[in-house]
Design a protein that fits this description.
single chain; alpha+beta; seven-stranded antiparallel sheet; globular
């Protein structure tokens, strides 16, 4: 079982999920995603994809992230291509701790390609710090968007 870094966001769970549900924002909070090229209509419905680039120029690689399951506003499950490592299964759980306080937990595990041969503990050494930073970025983005819409 992969480690699950988490972050507490001082917003209602629906507001946090709204930020996740905007696929055009993916590149602003997901560490490694550098350019959103397209977002399928209907995102985040099951089977829809975000078409993005990863890595720094000029070594960028075009990849996609697809919705495997969704239960708004409590869960979003994704399959991300992680060239050259393979694919990763990602689960974001949103838990309402209080009416204006949401905990977001993120679990990621490489599920296909050569990266899946790494033991979970070794995967966590790479993925957990990256996911902690992604969650901090998500927090800042969600709070910033919410303060603008409330003004």
């Amino acid at each position: 079982m992969p480690a699950e870094p988490s972050v507490r966001i001082p917003l209602p769970v629906e507001d946090v999920f709204t930020t996740l549900a905007d696929g055009w924002l993916y590149g602003l909070w997901v560490v490694g995603a550098t350019h959103i090229r397209d977002v399928d209509e209907g995102w985040p419905e099951v089977g829809t994809r975000i078409h993005h680039s990863v890595g720094g120029w000029p070594l960028t690689r075009q990849d996609t992230t697809e919705v495997r399951a969704v239960d708004p506003p409590h869960r979003l499950e994704l399959v991300a291509r992680l060239w050259p490592a393979g694919k990763a299964d990602i689960r974001l759980d949103l838990v309402e701790l209080e009416p204006d306080l949401t905990e977001v937990r993120m679990a990621e595990q490489i599920s296909d390609g050569p990266g899946r041969l790494l033991p979970s503990a070794a995967q966590d050494l790479v993925l957990v710090p990256r996911n902690r930073e992604s969650l901090q970025r998500l927090r800042a983005l969600a709070v910033g968007r919410s303060s603008r819409t409330r003004s």
